[in-house]
Amino acid sequence: MVQFAHKTEGLRFRIVLAPGVALGPGKAGLLEAIRDTSSLTAAANRFGMSYKRGWSLVQEMNAAFATPVVETEKGGSGGGGGARLTRLGDYVLDRYRRMEADADRVVADGIADLRRHLAEQHPTSSAD
User: Is residue 110 part of a domain?
Assistant: First the structure.
């Protein structure tokens, strides 16, 4: 199973744009997977989530922005529908990824410094 954050160490970048409106690694990963697969089903499967959960996240994002970030097409009786990012969806994903990269660069030295102080054996689960 692919992880949304596509990394297990370092910064997990999540921004709150307005009360109740957040964009983080999960939604960005879903947008990226939709862009790559042209399918909401395939994108959701990439993260081990149900179509219903993926659709719910897409609806949240579409409702949060002035225009939809994802457009979907219904398939016929044999399926065949699709999904694609809109121009705004491409922009949102690209802008998020650039902000994430900027944040990673800014905190890289601090993370490296803190890692030097880790114990040899550290727990596999952590609390913030």
Answer: yes
